[in-house]
Amino acid sequence: MKGLEAIRRAVTREEAAVIEWLLRHGEQGSDRFFVQIETLKIASRCTCGCPTVYFELEDNQTSRKGERLVSDQLGTVDGEDVGVMLFELNGRLSPLELYSCAGADKPFNLPKLEDLYTFEDASKRQASRSN
Ligand SMILES: [Zn+2]
């Protein structure tokens, strides 16, 4: 079962790099969030063993209603495919969410930058595999 643990820290360099990559490959206009990366603070994290983190929102807002997907991509960690998603709420970046594509519940880390890919890349890979 998914749980949340309150923590308070700045984003790591690895997280910042993944967020930046997601914004580069996200929906049109995602680049407006670049300026927020430097000041992002993590407020809580998922306790299931995945690297999902939730950023601090303005005014200690606790409701995450109205969250919107900014970027929805894929990555590979230890040979497993994972989904990598970035959301925003009221113009502020909110969670960086990761999930196992296979639905496995074993813990995994943040994918390395070079192991991230888009859905478009994924279909190209599949096409070259079946050729
Ligand atoms: Zn989790």
Describe the protein in words.
The chain has 131 residues and is α+β, with helices and mostly antiparallel strands. It has one domain. The protein is 21% helix and 36% strand. It is built from 3 helices and 7 strands, in the order E-H-H-E-E-E-E-E-E-H. A 4-stranded antiparallel beta sheet has the order 6-5-4-7. A 3-stranded antiparallel beta sheet has the order 1-2-3, with no helix packed on it. It is globular. The mean pLDDT is 92. The site of zinc ion (ZN) has 5 residues, from loops.
Concise synopsis of the structure shown:
This protein has helices at residues 13-24, 34-37, 119-130, and strands at residues 4-10, 41-46, 53-55, 68-77, 80-89, 92-100, 116-117.
